[in-house]
Amino acid sequence: MSTRKVAVVTGASQGIGAALVESYRKLGYAVVANSRSITPSGDAEILAVPGDIADPAVGARVIERALATFGRVDTLVNNAGLFVAKPFTDYTGADFDAVTGVNLRGFFDVTQHAIAAMLENGGGHIVNVTTSLTDHADSSVPSALASLTKGGLNAVTKALAIEYAKRGIRVNAVSPGVIRTPMHPAETHEFLAALHPVGRMGDIADVVDAVAYLEGAPFVTGEILHVDGGQSAGH
Asked: Which family does it belong to (predicted)?
């Protein structure tokens, strides 16, 4: 078996996900990158596996391709996420299916297969990207479906960390505030900056650095690391 470490990143085509792929390559990892719109890389150490992570077959395929190509899985970053902000009574059944499909079903399938591969390999690391809104609800950002799903990921982070603590698998979460990505139009930035006690939005590098810290922190598991400009502490 190859000794080169392998990271799997979902939601990897842009924003935080694309930056995570680059970060893991700089750490010397081979990377398996998944998103619906991912395109092949010129880097032989990056394997692009397209597909909608909400489809149960895709999570299995991502891990199978990782094992077939690189022989192992050391880290999984569950970065794919769908955020729909609406008043609670305006959410539709389609909204519920879409958000839970990506945020929960997508997490469930790829993580099950990744943990099975990690157990064969003697250990590994899982990082779930959640949201500070689960700790700090905000009346100006109605986000019940985000709290329902990402709050579940925060809880399961601790459950899996304890379940697998003695078997060499660490499980952590990064819980960001609002990060400056292409998802947020420039005209919303002033409003979004004001949601954070420090008075600015986060940068993609803030999240990437948090994941890199957790990757190199062997005594840290079950941690929900807030990268939110103080949001979860108060306002």
From this structure: Belongs to the short-chain dehydrogenases/reductases (SDR) family.
Q: Alpha helices of the chain — where are they, by DSSP H? A: 15-26, 56-70, 93-100, 107-121, 144-163, 189-193, 204-215
User: pLDDT value at position 235?
Assistant: 77
pLDDT 10s digits, 68-79: 999 999 999 999
> Measured at the alpha carbon of residue 81, what is the angle toward residues 122 and 113, in degrees to the nearest 5?
25
108-135: pLDDT as tens digits: 999 999 999 999 999 999 999 999 999 8
> Within 10 A of 50 (CB to CB), how many other CB atoms are there?
16
Q: Output the six-digit token pair for 118.
A: 């990690």
SS3 readout for 101-158? HHHHHHHHHHHHHHHHHHHHHCCEEEEEECCHHHCCCECCECCHHHHHHHHHHHHHHH
Supply 198's token pair.
């420090």
Cβ contact 81:100 at 8 Å: no
* pLDDT score recorded for residue 181: 84
CA dihedral 217, 123, 44, 13 (to 10 degrees): -70
Main-chain phi, psi angles of 94, to 5 degrees = -65, -40
Which residue carries 């000794």 as its tokens?
3
141 and 194 in contact (C-beta within 8 Å)? no
